[in-house]
Amino acid sequence: MVGQLMMLLSGSNTRSKCIGKSSRRDSDAGYPLREHLMTPVENAVEDSPEGRYNIKHKRARNLVERAFGVLKSRWRCLLAAREMHYAPRTAGRITIACAVLHNMCTDRGLDTPNLSQEDINIEIIRQPSSLPSSAVVSQTSAAALNQGRRTRDTLIQLLERTR
Questions:
Q1: 70 near 18, Cβ under 8 Å?
Q2: For residues 87 and 145, what is the distance between their CA atoms, to the nearest angstrom?
Q3: Which ranges carry the DDE Tnp4 domain (predicted)?
């Protein structure tokens, strides 16, 4: 799991292809830190291991957002306005299938269509908002947060070793 994210964070050359199967979501501080959901380190000193991690996290997030933008341009079923009403596992398989098909199109030189301004505006409106800050933290979510911190700390250490 950490190895796949390391490859993404280390700047592996993905060209214009979409990211393949990955078990770790890129995220920001609007989401809770979890083992499978990395967030930036708050108040990290710029030239510290945590600061360098934040820079790589931001780059990875931008790469992932661009990849999803490309997928949404080619496969309109992925747009938020056209919600997929499937179980998460099925929705994930559909997304992976769209990435594979996109890569096949790219390999054959087919251009990616552009989203209309209307589709872009609808996407912006339909994006989920941040989690409420007043949410009560249960013991289960506290344990999940601690596991996320351990995973992120391990990732930061691995990134520093490969520096």
A1: yes
A2: 24
A3: 28-103
Question: Residue 61 in contact with residue 28, Cβ under 8 Å?
Answer: yes
Most confident of 24-28, 74-78, 128-132, 156-160: 156-160
pLDDT digits (tens, 9 = 90+) for 137-153: 455 688 889 999 999 99
Q: Which two tokens stand for residue 119?
A: 């589709």
The domain locations on the chain are 2-117+156-161
- H/E stretch holding 52 reads helix 49-74
Which helix or strand (DSSP H or E) is residue 144 part of? helix 139-161
Q: Using one digit for the tens of pLDDT, what is the confidence trace for 72-86?
A: 889 888 887 666 678
Is 30 in contact with 131 (CB distance < 8 Å)? Answer: yes
Could you give the count of Cα atoms lying within 13 Å of 132 in the half-sphere of its Cβ?
Answer: 4
